[in-house]
Amino acid sequence: MGTSSIAQQADSRTDVANDDFRARLHAMWAGVAGGWREYAKDVDARGSAVTERMLELSSLRPNDRVLELACGPGSVGLAAAQRVGPAGEVVVSDVAAEMTSIARDRAHALGLANVTGRVLDLESIDEPDDTYDVVLCREGLMFATDPARGAREIARVLRIGGRAALAVWGPRERNPWLGVVFDAVSAELGRPVPPPGTPGPFSLADAARLAALLSDAGLSHVEVSEISVPLRAATFDEWWDRTCALAGPLTQILASLPAGSAERLRSRARESAQSYQTDNGLDFPGVTLLASGRRDGRVHR
């Protein structure tokens, strides 16, 4: 067998493995949609400063056509819909139909007739080239199995002059609100969570790498900044329950643990969280990276 044939077979096996992982990832988010519906207002409030900054970076205008990827409860898309006006359009999308349904229901409740929902994978956006004026994605690209492919897809569906604004979590050590949970799970299981090299909340925490993804995709005027996103909770139980309901990968792990392991894990997390206890409850620091860019011409396919 020639070298090229061996390489092709290896690439094929990699593609199959990636497709399998991607399918499991999509199913995971569908499985935790109930928690995202329950805590939708909390998600809105926690990310309000990030949402506002993303809308500023994307320079929304009346009549713009906007796509929100990995929308979850639709926090960013619904805010954008109020900016672009009735002549504009916002498509809220997610790989999980259950998530898209949440965002669509919330738009209906708010009377936002300019919002539609679609099931779309940000790594393979089922839309024609040059379709949107603005693409928004808050805390989604970091879960892509191939974030470079996702960035290229974002650039592809933008029209000339179109703008993209993305947000991902910053370094793990600067986001102990979730790092504490990962540390507790890792200690209980005896292995790192998430495994090295796999998509996760901190997989794009390097600002230089994030900027390079957008630049390499063909976007110009790429900028990356950071914003403080603290998390506050009145009690440990409030923080723990909300985090476990929303953190997709963790939700499945926690649900699979026997009672004894789950209780030990919870005790570890409680002990670590004491470092962030104040007179008013838990007060965790948090940092989000914001990235923006513009399509000025041809982009990489």
Question: What would you say this structure looks like, in words?
Answer:
Helix 4 (48-57) crosses helix 5 (75-84). Strands 3-2-1-4-5-10-6 form a seven-stranded mixed β-sheet. Strands 7-9-8 form a three-stranded antiparallel β-sheet, with helices on one face. The protein has twelve helices and ten strands. The two termini are 31 Å apart. 48% of the residues lie in helices and 20% in strands. The protein has two domains: 14-170 and 205-230 and 285-301, Vaccinia Virus protein VP39 (Rossmann fold, 3-Layer(aba) Sandwich); 172-198 and 231-284. The longest helix has 29 residues, at 3-31. A hairpin with a 2-residue loop joins strand 8 and strand 9. It has 301 residues and is of the alpha/beta class. The model is unreliable at 6-17 (pLDDT under 50).
Order of helices and strands: HHHHEHEHEEHEHHEEHHHEEE
List the uncertain runs.
Answer: 6-17
Ends: how far apart?
31 Å
Mass-distribution shape: globular
Rounded mean pLDDT is 90
State the fourth-level CATH superfamily of the largest domain.
Vaccinia Virus protein VP39
> What is the CA-based Rg, rounded?
20 Å
Structural class by secondary-structure content: alpha/beta
Give the tally of β-strands: 10
Helix content: 40-55%
Number of helices: 12
CATH topology of the largest domain: Rossmann fold
Strand content: 15-25%
The CATH class of the largest domain is Alpha Beta
CATH-scheme architecture of the largest domain: 3-Layer(aba) Sandwich
Instruction: Report the sheet with the most strands, covering strand number, pairing sense and barrel closure.
Output: 7 strands, mixed
Total tally of structural domains: 2
Strand order within the widest beta sheet: 3-2-1-4-5-10-6
